[in-house]
Amino acid sequence: MRLALDAMGGDHAPGPIVAGAVKAVQCDPELRVVLVGDQSQVEPLLAGMPDVRDRLEIFHSSQVITMEETPVVALRKKPDNSISRCWQLLAEGKVEAIVSAGNTGAMVAGGLRLRLFLKNVRRPGIAAIMPTLKGPCVLLDVGANISPKPEHLYQYGVMGSIFAKHILQKPQPTIGLMNVGAEEAKGHDLAKETHTLFKASSLGDQFIGNVEGRDINKGVCDVIVTDGYTGNIVLKVCEGVFDFVMKMAGKELLGALQNEKHLGQQALQNLVKRYDYHEHGGAPLLGIDGICIICHGSSGERAIENALGIAAKYARASLNDRIVEELESSPHLSDSDE
């Protein structure tokens, strides 16, 4: 299992990124990681690690796309950037997956630029795992496609359903459409047309209709479909609320326990381990011919280790083969829908 990791991507790169790669190969003896980035910065971080050095390669890249740069412009002006080199390795079949905590827009644009899509996929979508009272669900898209067509959202339902079944272990995944109300007539034209498309499709039995933002963490369905603009806002609001609630709960809980603070600290640690986004590693860009995991910009060693482990898991689960099979049996789109 050979994976490419953008060693220069993220707010704290390359230190925690490389450290996460080291931990990942230590945990999985079948894993090999190609560290894509500036060799002069990456090589010293691997000193004194003879036990794993043979499974950590370096692919030199002289340029870095920062978080502040415009993705398309940066990809054009910096051809030797670490994100593009990761995509190059995937396109050439030299790795089975790529992982980056760098500029999300550049990661998505890199894939779109190469048109490295699975058969019949019109637009890839980023899938985020969300915690609910009934176990995890998947929300997509959360940032890859801010102006989708109904057909694109339908395909997100297909891919999300396969993801929920084979990764989240949901035997009969249910699908909901993010909207401003549960009633069928609610929402803008995109929502109404997508609702009609789902009901008339082979996913009709799995489709429960419209869901609202407050329904996400209740676990009303296993897959929630939306456009990338809305999904990204929802995701970041949820992350912010989680951080806020944990800080406030910690303050109140530890203050109330007084002499039993260790019990409160353990409870809080358990909650973080279960629900913190770092534990999920990253979000897959579904619809790509290969595996692409996009991590949070603030990802540290633990998040990168988990992201590499998740990438290997997705590759072994043959998710892409299942997506292609399902789309083969679904209504195909005309060329005008591209």
Count of individual domains: 2
Nearest-integer average pLDDT? 89
Shape: globular
Percent of residues in beta strands? 5-15%
- Second CATH tier, the architecture of the largest domain: 3-Layer(aba) Sandwich
The rounded Rg comes to: 20 Å
Overall SS class: alpha/beta
Distance between the termini: 33 Å
How many β-strand runs?
Answer: 11
Query: How can the largest sheet be summarized?
Result: 11 strands, mixed
H/E element sequence: EHEHEHHEHEEHEHEEHHEEHH
Instruction: Identify low-pLDDT runs.
Output: 332-338
CATH topology group of the largest domain: Isopropylmalate Dehydrogenase
Strand order in the sheet with the most strands: 3-2-1-4-11-10-5-6-9-7-8
Helical residue percent band: 40-55%
CATH class of the largest domain: Alpha Beta
Q: CATH H-level name of the largest domain... which superfamily?
A: Isopropylmalate Dehydrogenase
Description:
There is one protein chain. This protein has 338 residues and is of the alpha/beta class. It folds into 2 domains: 151 residues, Isopropylmalate Dehydrogenase, CATH 3.40.718; 123 residues, Isopropylmalate Dehydrogenase (3-Layer(aba) Sandwich). The chain has 11 helices and 11 strands. The protein has an 11-stranded mixed sheet with strand order 3-2-1-4-11-10-5-6-9-7-8, sandwiched between helices. α1 links the parallel β1 and β2. α1 crosses α10, α4 runs parallel beside α5 and α6 crosses α7. It is globular. The two termini are 33 Å apart. The C terminus is likely disordered.
